[in-house]
Amino acid sequence: MTNKPQSLFLGPEQREAAWERFGKDIFDVVVIGGGVVGAGIALDAATRGLEVALVEARDLASGTSSRSSKMFHGGLRYLEMMEFGLVREALKERELALSTLAPHLVKPLRFLYPLTHMGWERPYVSAGLVLYDRMGGAKSVPGQHHLTRSGALRLAPGLKRDALTGGVTYYDTVVDDARHTMTVARTAAKYGAAIRTSTQVVGFLREADRVVGVKVRDSEDGRTTEVRGSVVINATGVWTDELQGLANQRGRFHVRASKGVHIVVPRDRIASDTSIILRTEKSVLFVIAWSSDHWIVGTTDTDWNLDLAHPAATKSDIDYLLEHVNKVLVTPITHADISGVYAGLRPLLAGESDQTSKLSREHAVARIAPGLVAIAGGKYTTYRVMAYDAVDEAAQDIPRRVSPSVTEKVPLLGANGYYALMNQTPHLAEKYGIHPYRVQQLLNRYGSLIDEVIGLAEGKPELLEPITGSPGYLRVEAVYAVAAEGALHLDDILARRTRISIEYAHRGVESAEEVARLVAPVLGWSDADIAREVSVYTARVKAEIESQTQADDASAEALRLEAPEARREVLDPVTSNPD
Question: pLDDT of 378-429, one tens digit each?
Fold first, then answer.
């Protein structure tokens, strides 16, 4: 066993070092999947003192974990489904994230619940919010507050007067899910986990009836190697069944994919000082204050049985969101107002209901075979609970004592010192030579790692200038994304390390070439590589925009799949050849 390296960086050097470890070490735990659950498992196992490898076929959070409603919440609507345990658990996790684990990434967010019925609705909603406020032992957010219709309209003047009879405010949270997932993975690397993206499982290694590791293929150049471990954990979300099939194992549970579509609109299109939650005939609709510049409106909830890597939003999905939000707005939102659209897939445990909106968000974990554990379901908020449940289940296959989980006490990278640094914003602005507003932006993305980020601009003042076409981000952030955060392609940078792809009407196209040239020295790109990256990214955006004009899923998917893959070697898990 080699000494496990510990690094705060997930750059090209660490990526190559991880490949070398794969061929030499025998790990305690091999995690498949770089979403929030897989990253959480890697962190949980590493902080128990275990040797951990994590492989992800594409990018960290490239699937479900970058396409959520951007909320770290308890699931208020699950109270009506009597899922009290899930809500209590999620609210506890919300409080932990706000107070200790990730205060730089998870932020309090006020919501207005417009009341539409006189009499019974206010006490009914109030009772639910009392439960919501108390079940999680919330300390970091205020409780509910009741408003008359006039009071609610002063808070949200963009709402029609006849759309409500009064209102109640309560607090939840907002999070950049992709950055949070990446930070969980980086924290795992800090504690010794070997994290490697663009690394796809193409087969399982066996000794008799036991799984003893996986065969992986580098999604960039096609080379292969083996990663051996005492136990393999399948944390692939909507790909769970496909990986079970690749392992030739019948799963203990099955996963259904539910498509959720969100639209992003400029902040000035809706006059409101608060986020809003609206009831629909099927579920709820959120109008989320995503930043000082944007709202996120979502979500839909429909079955998806097509390509799992690239779920496509349709015109019908977008029309559904516009129709429902415009019912309550004085000034309707139009297609022309939309700056971004994204579609994600929820991994739901199948079999409980034919309606995806009523499927449980509880998770399930099972030992599928000796040396193979699978976990699926759950909510983004409960990733940490899912992670320690998975490691607890895997412990029986690890031939040494496994310590209890300690992640409740392990802040993510950037959390320690965050509050003190926020209080020092004017001093930091003077130190770095940037506006105090920029310092706050950076602290809310990187926390106490801000020195590390700005340090890459030493002697290169041009890196502290905004990215062309995307003034909300500095050039140094693109460089840091590839040097420290594991980004390998333009899509990784523009869609996940930053949110340029959904926050600007050009969807990142106007920034693509400049960003490619900024990161080329770190990634070793030639002029031909730069041209290919820009071409692939532009084609992806064009395909997505065109798919969003289609009326049905099949037509939208056909257009979306016309765009080339940035990663040349990614294969369908079902057709991957382990030999």
Answer: 889 999 999 999 999 999 999 999 999 999 999 999 999 999 999 999 999 9
| pLDDT for the residue numbered 77 | 74
Residue identified by tokens 């020092």 is: 424
Q: Count CB atoms within 10 A of the CB of residue 409.
A: 10
Angle made by CA atoms 452, 456, 461, in degrees to the nearest 5: 125
What is d(CA 30, CA 36) in angstroms, rounded to the nearest whole number? 15
Closest CA to 50 of 191, 181, 210: 191
Q: What are phi and psi of 284, to 5 degrees?
A: -135, 160
Taking all residues of the chain, what is their mean pLDDT, rounded to a whole number? 92
- For the chain, how long is the longest CA-to-CA vector? 71
Read off the tokens for 178: 């992709």
Question: What is the mean predicted confidence (pLDDT) over 494-510?
Answer: 97
Locate all alpha helices (DSSP H) within 356-424, ordered by sequence.
383-394, 418-423
Helix (H, G, I), strand (E, B) or coil at 217: strand
User: Any idea what DSSP says for residue 565?
Assistant: P
Helices (H), 272-412: 315-326, 383-394
Q: What's the CA gap between 96 and 329, in Å, rounded?
A: 35
Q: Specify the 3-state DSSP secondary structure of 340.
A: strand
> Residue 489 and residue 516: Cα distance in Å, rounded?
8
Handedness of CA 90, 391, 411, 8 (dihedral sign): negative
Q: Which of 274, 272, 275, 270 is nearest to 339 (CA)?
A: 270
Query: What's the CA gap between 312 and 14, in Å, rounded?
Result: 33
**Token representation of residue 99:** 């107070």
Pairing of strands 275-279, 284-289: antiparallel
